[in-house]
Amino acid sequence: MAGARPGVHALQLEPLRVPETLIKGSKFMKWDEVSRAGETPWFLFDVDLLDISCIRDTRTGRYAKLPKDPKIREILGFGGPEQRPEDKLLTVVHGPDLVNVSFLNFMTVVQDDTAKVGRGKVAGLFWGAVGQVRVFSAWVLDTEWKGPLGLLGSGGCREVVTGIRESIKRDEFTLEIFERFLNKLCLRPDIDKILLEIGAKGKPYLSLDQLMEFINQKQRDPRLNEILYPPLTRAQVRQLIDKYEPNQQFQQRDQMSMEGFGRYLGGEENTIVPPEKLDLSDDMTQPLSSYFINSSHNTYLTAGQLTGNSSVEMYRQVLLSGCRCIELDCWKGRPQDEEPFITHGFTMTTEIPFKEVIEAIAESAFKTSPYPVILSFENHVDSAKQQAKMAEYCRNIFGDALLIDPFEKYPLQPGIALPSPQELLGRILVKNKKRRAHGKGSEGSIRKKLEQTPSSYSDSSGVGEPGMYREAESEEEEEQQDPKKPTTDEGTASSEVNATEEMSTLVNYIEPVKFKSFEVASKRNKSYEMSSFVETKGLEQLTNSPMEFVEYNKKQLSRIYPKGTRVDSSNYMPQVFWNAGCQMVALNFQSLDLAMQLNLGIFEYNRRSGYLLKPEFMRRQDKLFDPFTEDIIDGIVANTVKVKIISGQFLSDKRVGIYVEVDMFGLPVDTKRKFRTRTSQGNSFNPVWDEEPFVFHKVVLPTLASLRIAVFEEGGKFVGHRILPVSAICSGYHYICLRSESNQPLCLPALLVYTEAYDYIPDDHQNYAEALINPIKHVSLMDQRAKQLVALIGESEVRAAGGQAWHGLEGGPWAGLVGSQRRKAYGQGLAECASGSFAWAGACHSLSHCVPSASLDVSPQSVEELRQHKAFVKLLKKQYRELKELRRKHMKKICSLNKKQSAQSPVGERSRCADLSAGCILFHEGTRRKVDLQDWQIKGLLQLRESQHQLERDCKREHLRQVPEGTRAWEGQVPAKPAPRLQGGGAHREF
């Protein structure tokens, strides 16, 4: 979302490299969760094909799963003396989403390191940037298959296939044969139309020049600087032809066929988002508060909030998806073992051991991203002994990864910023209430431990009564609540207990405190203090104090979590709080609704690091930002985005109608929902829409806006979608590989779209922008309009409207100025022409009458000869000095007026800043006064500029009037050249 860097392929992707041991293969014994060893010695040879895009993790050693059946364990050698079968184990985790995962378990037969090679390699082959870019363009061919061709189930398939049962030999079924078969099966009239628009003119190929023009004009991002990012050269385009054109004859003639053109559209050089956006592209050295952090709420749940299973596996899957902030709801263990556990309190959800969760976090924390992981504890363990055990587990299992002592460079002092993700690389941070020495405690388990120094909030001034245990206020509690009246929005968060010394020592840079007000937080100025808001309280703060909320999030962290009434584990829209700069917007990862799809799509970028740098405007201390603004932000270039849905490929295997929705998410003024195509009639195999483009005219903050393109069946069933950051969208024709609800690539389903993303230009400035882009075309258009006026109302009326200017442009000696000479003359008088003044042209006409009639033996003096006369040059220099001096005086008056107006502004500005904290009414009153003052100042400045402009025009007219008078004085001083006689006697040659 951050860093408006229009797409340029600066990242050179290296080809995928599979370890040799995986290519050659090895012998394994395989079992699943329900495998049992029967008495009959049958051997089952089971052949499975697992799509690599479904692989979520690989585990070895003690983290691999062990067989449950005792007989299988005995066969594999578990429990034998001096045997370590764990070193031979490999578990492959796969599934369509985070909840529904399955396990394939293997044990090597040969004693080698195949299991170690498999760890992290298999999943890494796909989840890297290369795997995601090439997923649509690369085919995987099973060359071991032999048999009849299967039938495709879509009604869009050509009928010629339905009655065929042909066999293809293994050695003949090459990748090239398969692609040709697919091209014959799926005719592409949409690509034919694109070739025709480019200029193929009925030919089945594009020339090198046509392809180069297409890439540099249609496919190029118009927001790019041509000097920093030059267009492709002929040599670079020729390399593309050599790479994608399968026909050697076309290659030799520097031509690209339709088949090669289709390959190029799906190639890695033509992705809708540049590859470097998928790679680590953000600056990771800014303070922690400068990033959006991928965050989870009630991470352990697999279903609803009231019933369902809690799972240790969910912590692994959430971390593997790139999440960097996970939640642990800890409760006191039973007296039998006194082992704390994790569950959703006061519900029927199951319990999971705290220790197993910590082990799972330690194993999976940094597989996907090396950047810091935040453990958000909701601590209900009111036993000092069990809290000490929790702290011990964290220390022993996490080891050096657990950050206990703050860095010397970043002490826990007011005014000191938080360390950066780069400096916290590979570290685990604990968010838990910190013990404070205020008041006295009473009897009880944790009360005895805290009897001498009971804790309370750092910013809490109340002291508990003697002999009475005062329950600590939750960091997620925004205001005092009646203990007899529980809040349904906050759930169990408001019933946390105080922390012991052991747990307090684990807390450093993320210390939760109760939120009082933005003013109090600003005065304390402690970056390491953070507050949590239930979504309803967060919306209240955002509505009442939007700019103050943004300012708070520039220095301190804030966490937003779903309200307690979302018992179905639904999610709120995270974009609302991203707009305010909230870092940890926690969602229910088990629910793949629209909000979660948006979250997964956004955090896919920046190498799934879980950290996205906020836009600069939301990080700078010298700038105020209102997330509800509807105006263009100072220093931010708004964008215009156009999306045209052309066609789809392999969208469904059923004969159903398909439609596409296009949504924009961003600031409230940028959010647009929903554009929708028509529904294709029973064709889901290769539907063609090719409708008018959907236009988002003004995207105020492109670095915070995202485009969602989603495909649905006619009944509303989800097919696939893609989330695209507006600041990185590449213009031109592109294939979009669709993703599932869990953001896994679907490989074959794709859309062909045409996109444009360029700087926004207001409608009233469109003509000026076009004139600046192409001034020659603009001048030619003015000529054309003038001629049309002559044909419509007559030349005499046009002359009456413009004086002698029209005749001066169309007749006289300057009528002979063509090409660059005339364009130069137009350029010199462009300002006067735009304001309706044709005095320059009239002077040119007058100049033509100053040339005396010559005899048949002497040619008239040309304009160029008169221009080079010393007197003429001297006159021009004199006029230039006069005009320059006049403009200098005018600028001096403008500067004086600006200083006078600026002296009036600070009073209103200071009162406005003071009113921000005093109240909303004073703020709006100050804003109104400022607007009135600005209007008055602008009106005065415009009046001054109008009078100055009139004086400058009068001066120019006087200068132009002096030209014909001067020519009479020096016209005889220029020696005339004899002219050749022409047929017709009286005719002479004109210059």
Automatic annotation (TrEMBL):
PI-PLC Y-box domain residues:
503-619
Q: Per UniProt, what is one Pfam family of this protein?
A: EF-hand_like
The question of whether RNA-binding is a record keyword is answered with no
- Kindly list the cofactors needed: Ca(2+)
- State whether keyword Membrane applies: yes
Stretches for region Disordered: 435-500, 971-991
Keywords, A to Z? Answer: Calcium, Cytoplasm, Hydrolase, Lipid degradation, Lipid metabolism, Membrane, Metal-binding, Nucleus, Phosphoprotein, Transducer
Using the UniProt record, name the top-level EC class of this enzyme in a single word.
hydrolase
Which residue stretches does the UniProt record annotate as biased composition, category Polar residues?
A: 452-461, 489-500
Q: Which residues form the active site?
A: H297, H344
Query: Per the record, GO CC terms?
Result: cytoplasm; membrane; nucleus
Tell me the ranges covered by the C2 domain, including all copies: 620-748
Known EC number(s)? 3.1.4.11
Query: What SMART domains does the database record attribute to this sequence?
Result: C2, PLCXc, PLCYc
Biological process terms from the Gene Ontology for this record are: G protein-coupled receptor signaling pathway; lipid catabolic process; phosphatidylinositol metabolic process; phosphatidylinositol-mediated signaling; release of sequestered calcium ion into cytosol
Compartment list: Cytoplasm; Membrane; Nucleus
Q: Which reaction does it catalyse?
A: a 1,2-diacyl-sn-glycero-3-phospho-(1D-myo-inositol-4,5-bisphosphate) + H2O = 1D-myo-inositol 1,4,5-trisphosphate + a 1,2-diacyl-sn-glycerol + H(+); a 1,2-diacyl-sn-glycero-3-phospho-(1D-myo-inositol) + H2O = 1D-myo-inositol 1-phosphate + a 1,2-diacyl-sn-glycerol + H(+)
How is the cofactor bound, as the UniProt entry phrases it? Binds 1 Ca(2+) ion per subunit.
Q: What is this protein called?
A: Phosphoinositide phospholipase C
| Protein species of origin | Varanus komodoensis
